[in-house]
Structures are given as structure tokens and as C-alpha cells.
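PROTEIN DESIGN WORKSHEET
SECTION A - STRUCTURE
LENGTH: 163
C-ALPHA CELLS:
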């Protein structure tokens, strides 16, 4: 297994993984499949470009051999890095890919000297909650409706980073 930062020319891979994630687990994401399907090639190219270098955003892809099997993004928000869009192909879950993707965002946040990494996780998504707890995240008690499905509630979790 390897995890690496997305390259700018890999926008078709980003699109394929993101569409697969939204199709597989629509209840886990703030965006909808319809939103993603309405994105243009230029939108995907811009996301890949922004996530491939620099300090404002990062996109990481997990590979099992030559096969891309997971995706995560991080976005800088002042002194915090916000982790979002974590997803692993179902057949590869439970093998450490999700943990490795989370670790990649945490490592990137440390490179930026961020004070913390935060995320939103849907209440009831116990596999994700266990993964985040293992990685040192803790719930803050702050909740909000999931934007894509307001009948669901998501909770903010934070992992402080050592100075």
C-alpha cells in the first residue's frame, strides 16, 4: 500500500474516485452525486491542481499495488487543517488504507505547522468514528445537519497537534 499526493494531471482519477465515493456512501458526504456529476472537466482540473501542491489544499490517493483504492482531502483554514472526503473502496476497507490516508493529512498539517486537524463525521457512522478515534481525534460536541441530507446529523471532531 502507498499513499501519495495527487498529481495535477490526475483529475480523471480524482473524478472517478469521488464519483465512486458519492455513489457508494451518499450519507457520508456533504456533497451529493448530482453536485459532482454537474461539475465540469475544468472544475475537476482545478481541484486536482489545487490539491496537488501548495499549502491551501491537498488531495491524497491510496494505492494497493497499481490500483487506486482511496481518497482524502485536506483544506487549510487559518490555524486548522480540515480533513474531508475520506473514502476507501469497500473491498479494501479494514486493511489500513483509511488510517494511512488520515495519517497523510495529519502529516501535511504538521508540515504547515497547523494547530489542529478537524473534520465532520455523521453520527452513527461507527467505522469512521472508530478510525478517527484511533487517530487521536475527539468529538467536540458541536453538531449540524449534513448539508446533503439534513435529516442526518454530523459532529465536529478535532485532533490537536503538538507544537
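SECTION B - SEQUENCE
RESIDUE ASSIGNMENT:
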Amino acid at each position: 500500500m502507498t499513499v501519495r499526493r495527487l498529481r495535477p494531471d490526475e483529475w480523471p482519477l480524482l473524478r472517478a474516485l469521488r464519483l465512486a465515493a458519492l455513489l457508494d456512501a451518499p450519507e457520508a458526504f456533504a456533497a451529493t452525486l448530482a453536485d459532482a456529476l454537474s461539475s465540469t472537466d475544468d472544475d475537476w482540473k482545478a481541484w486536482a491542481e489545487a490539491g496537488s501542491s501548495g499549502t491551501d489544499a491537498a488531495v491524497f490517493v491510496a494505492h494497493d499495488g497499481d490500483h487506486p483504492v482511496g481518497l482524502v482531502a485536506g483544506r487549510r483554514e487559518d490555524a486548522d487543517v480540515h480533513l474531508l472526503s475520506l473514502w476507501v473502496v469497500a473491498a479494501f476497507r479494514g486493511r489500513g488504507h483509511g488510517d494511512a490516508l488520515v495519517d497523510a493529512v495529519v502529516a501535511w498539517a504538521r508540515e504547515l505547522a497547523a494547530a489542529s486537524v478537524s473534520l465532520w463525521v455523521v453520527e452513527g457512522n461507527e467505522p469512521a468514528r472508530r478510525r478517527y478515534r484511533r487517530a487521536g481525534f475527539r468529538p467536540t460536541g458541536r453538531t449540524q445537519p449534513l448539508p446533503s441530507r439534513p435529516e442526518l446529523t454530523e459532529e465536529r471532531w478535532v485532533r490537536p497537534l503538538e507544537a
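SECTION C - NOTES
The radius of gyration is 15 Å.
The mean pLDDT is 96.
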